[in-house]
Amino acid sequence: MDFKIGVLAGDGIGPEIVEQAIKVMDAVGAKFGHNFNYTKALVGAIAIDETGDPYPDATHQVCMDSDAVLFGAIGDPKYDNNPAAKVRPEQGLLGMRKKLGLYANIRPVTTFPSLLHKSPLRQDIVEGADLVVIRELTGGIYFGARGRSEDLTSAFDTCVYTVEEIERILRLAYEYAGKRNKRVTVVDKANVLASSRLWREVAQRIEKEYTDIETDYMLVDNAAMQLIQWPKKFDVMVTENMFGDILSDEASVITGSMGLLPSASVGRETSVFEPIHGSYPQAAGKDIANPLATVLSAAMLLESLDLLEEAQAVRDVVNRSIDAEVVTVDIAGDSKAYKTSEVGTWLAENL
Amino acid sequence: MDFKIGVLAGDGIGPEIVEQAIKVMDAVGAKFGHNFNYTKALVGAIAIDETGDPYPDATHQVCMDSDAVLFGAIGDPKYDNNPAAKVRPEQGLLGMRKKLGLYANIRPVTTFPSLLHKSPLRQDIVEGADLVVIRELTGGIYFGARGRSEDLTSAFDTCVYTVEEIERILRLAYEYAGKRNKRVTVVDKANVLASSRLWREVAQRIEKEYTDIETDYMLVDNAAMQLIQWPKKFDVMVTENMFGDILSDEASVITGSMGLLPSASVGRETSVFEPIHGSYPQAAGKDIANPLATVLSAAMLLESLDLLEEAQAVRDVVNRSIDAEVVTVDIAGDSKAYKTSEVGTWLAENL
Ligand SMILES: CC(C)[C@H](C(=O)O)[C@@H](O)C(=O)O
Ligand SMILES: CC(C)[C@H](C(=O)O)[C@@H](O)C(=O)O
């Protein structure tokens, strides 16, 4: 089959890690008889530098025309600590989410047995943890009205949610849980926020439709605790945009496999797949960054195209590379560290 | 000296743990020649049951007339999972915060060497962690306009901050850091929120006045990660109300001493001191709950009255009780578990 893949490598280590994922996808293509046609486009700081816009129209068009989008990372130190700069790379990200309608961010958090010692948590607490954080991505306080008072002495942000937005993300969470361990934890702050009370009302209605799924309600402060105390008790956690930003990042460090975690942002028109880590500017161009999170994001991408066997083949070869210690310096331990490009080539050759 | 202490024991285990703190304060009074005059008042579910109001006017008056307030815990299972109930115990808490102007919630997070094995984190990660989370408590999305659209298909909340509110809490954080390890981490989401950008602007101005304090800016998602990865790198963390709710709870579990952590809510008129744990209804009336967090809250109360030596004496006797294993079942391990009341009596007698 033929597939059109948008490739938005972005900043820092973005280009070099995306390159490895493409090697692996090409190996998948050769093995399973598919044709992946890649179209590159600019995003992030590099897009600002070249066009003045972190998510140019041309890039949007590429995404709209693609069956799926592979994304690297964005962010450049020259924009850090300058949150008031007129144009910032993050605006590109938020613009992309809104324009493509990427309403659900999905982050599986899994453990890799040989990396458990990297976790800041006790081994017995994290061993076998396997959860997914599903974050609503185009609503809430990220996209509500905001501003300053006229005299500049105060500022405000607005968190808005509609029944439709809540229902859409909840359904996706329940579908996901149906294919997993059949538990959904709905996280909100219903004892304080009106928007959270609406979330809970909608959830209490939707939950009745999924009789085989167990539903749990948890306040966000409690969830922030339990994620560390008992990560294994969670299967699918679903929550609104801001809480999801915090909890999905918190969840990503508990297993010690942060450099290996992929994500998907599911949209109406297309979906975007990217590693959860950032653009790691200090490592850019050095051929040392770990490409596995991006390769595993490519596996999620294949899955979204219904190429399930292909996705599994990618996951398998990643596991074999870890077992064979063909890994980059961040997870190499005492064994030899391989280059980014060497890991990518090994994966492609051993798929 | 004479002091007027408001006593709001609240629900669940509240009354029995507050009783132990009072035993200890009376021992302090006898030893150092002070007179603590206690006035009890209703708060929480018990106040709803008796007056229909979780924070009755009479209680407010008691607080206003007190030099400091000792608080137990609130919350009753009959109000759980019913966030839409007309009157809820939490409303009492929020009402109290607003009416007393309790603008700063202060939560020291410390380790107790003999309890480190209780931490979900690796011992080397938490050993020696010593930080304070300072949370703005009367502003932000907790107290902004909220509601439903007329057709009930959407709901909103508003986060508002004024320069004055931000400046007040930041100054308190810098004063605190000055007496500690001279580092302040300002946590916000300045890459997205207008209110956070105001926070950062104000912080960038205030920081210049405290030349001996090192300031660090951190996005809330990053803070949620680093708290687990490197809890020892923090000294004073300061943030807005909602982020503080999440991060202070997250921080409370990292050291494994959650049942021992006190808090202070500092106000214009008076300040309120309470354990960070909840009302633990399953244990109510059983004389098994750990009173140490409440006793350590009393130590913070004494400090607020400028009774520094007295506060230290309370902390010392708490440490000695742990060393002597005169502790309740939650931290007793293999040794004998003492009753709540026995621990309180031991502390008072050994002060
Ligand atoms: C860069 C920032 C705007 C973004 C967010 O908060 O959504 C990031 O933290 C993320 O989680 O993708
Ligand atoms: C009960 C609730 C309203 C309260 C809050 O969110 O402030 C609690 O979680 C706390 O942190 O004291």
TrEMBL record, chains A, B:
- What highest taxon heads this organism's lineage? Bacteria
**Needed co-factor(s):** Mg(2+); Mn(2+)
Q: Which residues bind substrate?
A: 97, 107, 135, 221
Q: Where is the Isopropylmalate dehydrogenase-like domain?
A: 4-347
What is catalysed by this protein? (2R,3S)-3-isopropylmalate + NAD(+) = 4-methyl-2-oxopentanoate + CO2 + NADH
| UniProt GO MF annotations | 3-isopropylmalate dehydrogenase activity
Q: Per the UniProt record, which EC number(s) apply here?
A: 1.1.1.85
Gene3D superfamilies named among the record's database cross-references: Isopropylmalate Dehydrogenase (3.40.718.10)
**Which cellular compartments is it found in?**
Cytoplasm
Q: What is the lineage of its organism?
A: Bacteria, Pseudomonadati, Bacteroidota, Cytophagia, Cytophagales
Cofactor binding, note field: Binds 1 Mg(2+) or Mn(2+) ion per subunit.
Name the family the entry cites. Answer: Belongs to the isocitrate and isopropylmalate dehydrogenases family. LeuB type 1 subfamily.
Task: List the protein's name.
Answer: 3-isopropylmalate dehydrogenase
Binding locations of Mg(2+): 221, 245, 249
Q: Where is this site: Important for catalysis?
A: 142, 189
Q: How does it assemble?
A: Homodimer.
**SMART domains assigned to the protein according to its UniProt record, in alphabetical order:** Iso_dh (SM01329)
What this protein is reported to do is described as: Catalyzes the oxidation of 3-carboxy-2-hydroxy-4-methylpentanoate (3-isopropylmalate) to 3-carboxy-4-methyl-2-oxopentanoate. The product decarboxylates to 4-methyl-2 oxopentanoate.
Pathway per the UniProt entry: Amino-acid biosynthesis; L-leucine biosynthesis; L-leucine from 3-methyl-2-oxobutanoate: step 3/4
